[in-house]
Structure formats: structure tokens, C-alpha cells
Design brief:
Layout (H helix, E strand, L loop, with lengths): L1 H8 L8 H13 L6 H10 L2 H17 L8 H7 L7 H6 L4 E4 L4 H11 L11 H8 L5 H12 L2 H12 L3 E4 L3 H4 L3 E3 L4 H13 L11 E3 L9 H24 L1
Antiparallel strand pairs: 1-2, 3-4
């Protein structure tokens, strides 16, 4: 019923249902024509696993190809398997759209977390001033490297946060939209925001400055009383969804 759909939207689902629950919710949110979320969800789960994968893969290209007047309600699209109408050569060549990602929004945060989950690549240097700080005991060499890695290790994150501070738009691929549609807004004065800050500190990651009224993160399990454990699990779920997406793209 509607309650089960709401629980999926809030991220309250068993781990073994992560991939099946995530994709229809994200897919429905992206569909431009209105329709019943319950009908769409039922139609989604009526598809085979292979059909759901094909739908997720081909729908962005289908939306770019189809005339808007030809688009139906989402449940009708699913039941008719209309993505199969897309010519194969268009499905293979369609590039993801590029869009402006609003600072602290779903796509912006998804791209940021995706970058942070990869190994740091940014160069950093130990200066003469740094060596004097180490020599005087102001900071240990290990702590200095940790600090420089956080500030310079992920150039894309530095660029994103710099642009946000200067009010400049950040343009990126829309390919992550299906994976971040379930992200939820977090207030900067909340305990949950503090838990996300601690996660970044544990991992040596630069954190956001808290200037946004809402900051979107992967949904946590509301039944988990330990917020530190909850945000770690939420990040792991997002990491898994990224890996599944890459495997799917490479297939």
C-alpha cells in the first residue's frame, strides 16, 4: 500500500531489498508525466529483473528521444515496456545530459560523495614553513599529511565547494540522478548533520560548511539508534549502488 512506498522513500528497507527498492523509487521521481506512485511501483515489481535493468538503462535515452506528447503515465510506460521502442543505436550512443547541480542538493552531494569514495589523487607538498612547524612540535608529520590530504586530495570536491562559496554554478552529468533521488534533506543544526560531520572527520574528508538550509545525504535507517552507525551504513548503501551502476555501465 501507500505506507510501504513511503517507507521505501524514507530508506527504511531491509538490506537485501536495497537494489530493487531503490531503482523504482528513483525512476518514478524522474518521470516527467504525473501518475500514481503505487501503480508505478506495482508495475515495476511485475517486471522481471532483466526488464527492470533494461528499463533503467534505456529510459534516460528514451526520454531524450520521445516527443513529450507521447509520454504516458509511468505505470502505463512500464506495463507496455515502451523503452523497447527506442532504436538500439540511440540507446547505445545517448550521452547523459549535463545539468547544474545545486550546492548541497541531491545531485551535488551524490557527485561529491562519489568523488570522496575514490582514492585521493590531488598532489600536495611539504613546504619549508611546514617543516618548521614539524620541527617546533607545532604539528606532527602524520597530522600535517592528514590535513593536506583532506584539503587537497580530492580536486573535484575542492572545485565544487569553491564554486559553491563563490556562488558559481557547478555543471555535471545527470547520470547519478537515479541513485540520489532517495537522498533526504538534513538541517545543519541537527544531530544527524553532526553525525555526517563525524563520518567525514573519521575518513579524513573535507566537510561542507553548513551554510545551506538543507543538505542532502543518503537516507539512514530510522530504526538505528546509533547515528554514527546509521550514517556509515547509509554511505555503504550508496557505495554499493555506485558499484552496481558502474558494473551495469561496463556490461
Amino acid at each position: 500500500g501507500e505506507g510501504s512506498h513511503g517507507s521505501i522513500l524514507n530508506g527504511n528497507y531491509p538490506p537485501n531489498r536495497l537494489s530493487s527498492a531503490w531503482k523504482p523509487t528513483a525512476w518514478y521521481k524522474l518521470w516527467p508525466k504525473p501518475g500514481s506512485p503505487e501503480f508505478a511501483r506495482n508495475a515495476w515489481f511485475a517486471l522481471s529483473a532483466e526488464e527492470r535493468d533494461a528499463c533503467s538503462e534505456r529510459t534516460p535515452a528514451y526520454l531524450a528521444w520521445a516527443k513529450r506528447d507521447d509520454l504516458t503515465a509511468p505505470a502505463v510506460y512500464l506495463k507496455a515496456r515502451t523503452w523497447t521502442d527506442l532504436p538500439d543505436h540511440l540507446a547505445a550512443t545517448q550521452e547523459p545530459a549535463r545539468v547544474v547541480a545545486k550546492p548541497c542538493g541531491k545531485l551535488w552531494m551524490g557527485r561529491r560523495l562519489e568523488a570522496l569514495l575514490s582514492d585521493p589523487t590531488g598532489p600536495f607538498f611539504i613546504t619549508a614553513f611546514d617543516e618548521r612547524r614539524i620541527a617546533t612540535g607545532a604539528i606532527s608529520r602524520e597530522a600535517l599529511i592528514w590535513e593536506k590530504r583532506r584539503e587537497h586530495g580530492w580536486p573535484l570536491v575542492v572545485k565544487m565547494q569553491d564554486r559553491a562559496l563563490r556562488g558559481e554554478p557547478f555543471v555535471t552529468s545527470a547520470d547519478l540522478l537515479p541513485l540520489v533521488a532517495g537522498f533526504v534533506g538534513v538541517k545543519p543544526d541537527s544531530d544527524l548533520f553532526a553525525a555526517w560531520r563525524r563520518l567525514h572527520e573519521r575518513r579524513g574528508w573535507m566537510f561542507i560548511d553548513g551554510r545551506c538550509e538543507w543538505n542532502y545525504f543518503p537516507p539512514v535507517d530510522p530504526a538505528e539508534p546509533d547515528l554514527d552507525a546509521a550514517v556509515e551504513a547509509a554511505l555503504q548503501h550508496f557505495k554499493i549502488s555506485l558499484s552496481e551502476g558502474r558494473i551495469h555501465d561496463a556490461a
